[in-house]
Amino acid sequence: MLIRQATTEDLDEVLAIEESNFSAAEAMSREAIDNHIRKIPDTFLIAEIDGAVAGYIEGPVVAEALLTDDLFLDVAPNQPVAGFVAVTSLSIHPDFKGQGIGTALLAAMKDVVAARQGKGIVLTCHDYLIAYYEMNGFVDQGESASTYANEVWYDMLWLNA
After folding, report:
1. Containing H/E element for 70?
2. Is the separation of the CB atoms in 58 and 72 below 8 Å?
């Protein structure tokens, strides 16, 4: 498995994975994904296996340990600040689920945060994923203020110690 930064050539495969794993209300649009690839390639990581996109993790660097709903739509280019990566999507192609790719992508993003001397990673998830993220070193911060896709979300935090 190769983990690398996303390029615009990955857009179609990333969009297909996004749409296969999230409801229509939750999935980011083609335009939003394209925006993220172009503006934050340093925190948009692709897991590639035999030339195919097996999964990805992405999100902008933000100053505070808070993921806000607007980040799912548009982001500014990452600044060289020691903030938090706000993960707006971690998604694995259905053919590659259960093979540790999500954990590998989380580990790679932790490496990016450490290299940037960042503070940590924040994300939101459904309640059934809390244990997964805890297993990967995240701490449950409780119910989120996020109302993205009219869902109930939980804030998760990993600190770069």
Report:
1. none
2. no
Q: Report the pLDDT averaged over residues 10-30.
A: 95
Residue 11 tokens read as 């857009």
114, 160 in Cβ contact below 8 A? Answer: yes
Q: What is the pTM of this model?
A: 0.95
> What pLDDT score was predicted for residue 140?
98
- Region 50-59: what's the mean pLDDT? 97
CB of 94 within 8 A of CB of 133?
no
| Partners of 124 in beta bridges | 155
pLDDT number for residue 46: 98
Crossing angle of the two packed helices 30-39 and 11-21, in degrees rounded to 10: 130
- pLDDT band of residue 137 (cuts 50, 70, 90) is very high
The secondary structure of residue 118, as a DSSP letter, is -
Q: For the chain, which residues make up each domain, given as ranges?
A: 2-118
Alpha carbon 155 to chain centroid, angstroms:
13
Q: How far apart are CA 108 and CA 6, in angstroms?
A: 13
Q: Exposed, middle or buried: residue 52 (CB in 10 Å: 0-12, 13-18, 19+)? A: exposed
Question: Does domain 2-118 fall into CATH 3.40.630.30?
Answer: yes
